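Hi all, long-time lurker, first post. I run a small reading group and we've been trying to get comfortable going from sequence to structure in the token notation. Rather than ask abstract questions, I figured I'd post a concrete chain and ask someone more experienced to write out its structure so we can walk through it together at our next meeting. Sequence below, copied exactly:
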Amino acid sequence: MNTLRALIFDVDGTLADTERDGHRPAFNAAFAGAGLRWHWDAATYGELLAVAGGKERIRHYAARHDPERAAAPGFGETVAGLHAAKTRHYLDHVAAGRVPLRPGVAALLAAARRQGLRLAIATTTTPDNVEALLRATLGPDAMGWFAAIGAGDVVPAKKPAPDIYRWVLERLELDAADCLAVEDSELGLAAASTAGLRCLVTPNAYTAGQDFGRAWMLRDSLAGIGPDELARRFAEDPAPPAAA
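-- Answer (accepted) --
Happy to help. Here is the structure in token form:
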């Protein structure tokens, strides 16, 4: 029988609708500030979410829609500059309170802490983005709630590679069989499952309709979900999902 000992959360789209409410407008502000005539509408950004990582999305988009610029010398520095500007815009947006947590997130985090479950984060977004969201929505001490925070470029391969989850598990010093991942996307589910984790998936407007056949649990949101329910179901499930 497995015992649930830790919850490992994705950030963008899982803790909050950061993609829709924060990252997309921040990218567009960075493009405008650099004098680029790029604009990512909601549909375009939804397609770009198939590419994990902000810098990777810029490169992907440029290669297809502005190939001369993408092939120009120094484009790597351009990408780094755009991403840095985008991060500044995003942090301002979050600090202004424009990116609330999704329903049920705060309650589940608080209940898990009261019951002694360890908390962790596994995300491709930057550490600054993670800290800004946690502080703005949960308070100045929120970073200390998490025993491990895997973010940004701490591993070279982004989701759907399992590397970020394996990195977090090493720092928690826990087996995948004792932890539950919480994700919102098919890419995140693939990463968690390949690392040997069960995965609770809560899709959002961008990810609804993706293939979540490997999800251990699928819910519209985290509202009404508590650690007691998760622990009971966890104990009843004798084995973690098979790694791909």
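A couple of things your group might point at:
The radius of gyration is 18 Å.
The first helix runs from residue 18 to 33.
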